[in-house]
Amino acid sequence: MTPSTPRESALCGLRARKKQRTRDALIRAALELFTAQGYEATTVDEIAAAVDVSQRTFFRYFSNKEEVTFAVQEMVEARFLDELSHRPADEAPLTALRSSVMAAWDDIAASIEPIVPVELHMRAYQMIESTPALIAAHLRRSCDLEEEVARLIARREGLDADLDPRPRVLVGAFNGVMRAAGKAWSEGDDFTVTSIRELTRSYLDHIGPVLDDNWRAVR
Amino acid sequence: MTPSTPRESALCGLRARKKQRTRDALIRAALELFTAQGYEATTVDEIAAAVDVSQRTFFRYFSNKEEVTFAVQEMVEARFLDELSHRPADEAPLTALRSSVMAAWDDIAASIEPIVPVELHMRAYQMIESTPALIAAHLRRSCDLEEEVARLIARREGLDADLDPRPRVLVGAFNGVMRAAGKAWSEGDDFTVTSIRELTRSYLDHIGPVLDDNWRAVR
DNA sequence: AATTCATGAGTCGGTAACTGTCATTTCGCT
DNA sequence: AGCGAAATGACAGTTACCGACTCATGAATT
């Protein structure tokens, strides 16, 4: 039963490390090429060539061109989910969501810097938001995330997400606002982390008042 | 000039009518095949063959496989937008949105029956909601719609959608809830129009209360 | 240290969604 | 009847992606 050294596959073993390096290199090369030439204009062959592996190998690491594009986002999402599931139980649902998003932005550097520079990730994010095919992919991913988030919220509140629609409704609305913020950011001219973080914060702060019936009467 | 008969291209002329018929036939054939065998399992060649045209001709009518899938949805959306832009000005924004959706569902038969049976459309909708690639496409389309809707809302309220984030925030939240309802419908077992209409209504009715901070205290 | 053995990587060939081009047919109008 | 424009078909090319096979290298065992 695994006598001595090789227990963890994540870090140990020359093989595993080499694999990790190839994967990281593919991500970096892909994002670099995408942001430089555009997504559609970049072929998988090019990405593979940049890392000096065969096209077939690329597809063994990532099941499609889309997947490599979102590899980094996935790490950020993981951070968000982790934060959400550790939020104090007495926090209101919407507040917990907002705090988790803010936390994820706050230490994005720590989450992804080992793989890609934050600056490259921001450029990639902006490219995603301005490429129709990637917007679609991004939205679908958000939708999957929504599912997990709704379950977490339901758990916090002691509800069954399959019976009570409120967690889904809240998360749907939350997500809708997040997307609106992301879009606004990508159409602006300040592509910094701080910028998107503050924009997100301000959009989320509108979520309550905006549903009040009469905008003209209220301020 | 145009001296005598052929003014409108929409209905007049053997040519235009034939074109329309081909287009409709392609839509019907596509939806029929998709719902029977699945989206990915159906090739464009099959669709073209079913209508007895070449693959190239299919691509002259629809720029991609996705487009034919959403051709009918587009008519429903048009109905929704039309209704929204004719809602009384004193209606609250969220109410106007809800009423327009309900109106669109109410006369869906009139909107689409000339092209496809409502029943086929409902089956297609359910297929869309259970095919990842189409979910993505659907979401992206909703996103484009969101843009238009936000502008309409801004106009109603006398705001500039580029300066005031409230229209986008409202529409984002609204859209999020609509998607949640569509998803819940597709996962249920009643694929009727009435069913999705009522589900939508009930989800929308939660949108206010759900943002209240403490779910456990309130009822 | 030598020998298996598992796993990762390359090659080749195929499918299906598109796209450009050009010849052909089909309408619409005079 | 006949001319110009528009619709269609036939064909070739590109790219994402997948399956099957083969080869090489690091890891486990003796």
UniProtKB/TrEMBL annotation, chains A, B:
Keywords: DNA-binding, Transcription, Transcription regulation
Residues in the signal sequence: none
Domain called HTH tetR-type: residue spans: 20-80
DNA-binding annotation, residue ranges on this chain: 43-62
SUPFAM superfamilies, alphabetized: Homeodomain-like
InterPro entries, sorted: DNA-bd_HTH_TetR-type_CS, Homeodomain-like_sf, HTH-type_TetR-like_transc_reg, HTH_TetR, MftR_C
Source species, domain of life: Bacteria
The name this protein goes by in its record: TetR family transcriptional regulator
Species for this entry: Streptomyces catenulae
